[in-house]
Amino acid sequence: MEIRCSICTESVPFGTMGRCSRCGEILRPFYSHEAVMRLIGIPSGPGIDRYRSLLPVTRPVPYLGEGKTPLISSRKIGPSLGLKHLHFKHEGCNPSGAFKDRGAALAAALALEAQAGGLLTASSGNAAAALSAYGAASGLKCIILLEPASPPTKLRQILATGARVLPVEGIFSHGPEAVGNLIFEAAALLNCYPAFVWAPVNPYILEGMKSISYEITEDLSGAPDVIVCPVGGGDLLASQWRGYLELKEAGLIKKLPRMIAVQSLSAPPLLKAFRSGARSVETLPYAKSRISGINVPFTGDHALRTVRDSHGLVVGVDDDEVFYVQKRMAEEEGIWIEPVSAAPVTALAQLAVEKVLGPGDRIVCILSGAGFKDSRLAKEESEIVSRMSTLPFDAEAIAEALDRPAGR
How far is CA 232 from CA 172, 184, 211, in A? Predict the structure, then answer.
């Protein structure tokens, strides 16, 4: 393995953080052909550690049950759109309820290998919950610089595993460079590993997330035609693309999927860059989405390159439509997801109408987190239950109540 710039290929020592000092682009691990070929006949094993030959760590990766999440065939939404082969990769089934567990497991291993005293990150919720869990499992203290508007359910997870939480006003509003510098400075002062889950700051952690592509390919006995994925910072999208490139090099797939990124129209840095034909993604002066997880003003250039290299595209969705689809997913598919997970499903209707997706395409929507991650709907539903009248212990009264509208 070598650590090189993804554009100018400048080599740097392992452990180097941030961007390439020569050209300012994103650093990433590159693996030998021999290591990539080990994807053939990967043995079964716990979590992402079974792929250690393609991870930037030599020690075992802590395991809490991450990985091997289900790939679920759509029962209603796909057929209603004329999509015969729509699947949902349900990352909400990871231990802390989100795909960030794959990155957090690797972050804990990297911190132990670096002999750091703990983990430190900034987060809107999911990364913090994951890192605090894997920090606890690894005997590492965990310090979270939290966005104050994060959903209370995510905060509860973080506190339950013993992390130290420090709310920092506008932690992401100062721009990506300022956030990275703050994390590096604080981590150095506190002897912590800078576990910010975003490749332009920490080039190593997202390598754990590419295991999603390995699992999808295994379950489908080949690569899908299209991946539809929510995008905030861009690691989830870019990491999967790296995985598919490795799978193709190993000869396990013959063609690469198109990568379709989905952002909120109220927080669209990648969408704006893609539509304008820009070479890089500019930080926006705003992020006004109500969808926690993708309400960020900046996206990494690695996501933009992924879309273009894969002949994909970027789609914008309306927040209200996303909340509606979140409800549909629960009622029609039986899958309770957080709003950010509903964003790629929301985009399907537009993509089908515009014939970007064909009826025979094998499509995978990445459901990035579980429904309990965002308390908005849970609060509304609990209020409905609290308004219900208590029924007598009588079968006829129960049957009669079913004829009345719910909540009365």
Answer: 12, 21, 19
Query: What are residue 360's phi and psi, to 5 degrees?
Result: -95, 0
Q: Return d(Cα 273, Cα 231) in angstroms, integer.
A: 13
Going edge to edge, which strands form the sheet with 118-123? Answer: 164-167, 141-146, 118-123, 193-194
Whole-model pTM: value is 0.92
The position carrying tokens 């130290």 is: 164
Place of tokens 């996501």: 303
d(CA 87, CA 364): 5
For residues 352, 358, 360, 364, the Cα torsion angle rounded to the nearest 10 degrees is -60
Cα distance between residue 362 and residue 219, in whole Å: 12
Residue among 103, 40, 101, 84 nearest 225 (CA): 84
Q: Which two three-digit tokens encode residue 329?
A: 């997913």
As its CATH architecture, domain 71-97+206-376 has 3-Layer(aba) Sandwich (3.40)
Residues β-bridged to residue 98: 369
What is the domain partition of the chain in residue ranges?
Answer: 71-97+206-376
Distance separating alpha carbons of residues 280 and 297, to the nearest angstrom = 14
The C-alpha atoms of residue 350 and residue 358 are separated, in whole angstroms, by 12
pLDDT block averages, 10 residues each, the chain of length 408: 94 94 94 95 87 95 97 98 98 97 98 96 87 96 82 78 87 82 93 94 96 97 98 97 98 97 98 97 93 91 98 98 96 96 98 96 97 68 67 81 66
Q: What is d(CA 408, CA 405) in angstroms, rounded to the nearest whole number?
A: 6
Handedness of CA 79, 85, 86, 90 (dihedral sign): positive
Burial (CB count within 10 angstroms: exposed 0-12, middle 13-18, buried 19+), residue 265: middle
CA–CA distance from 397 to each of 380, 386, 393 (Å)? 26, 19, 8
In angstroms, the CA 305 to CA 312 distance is 10
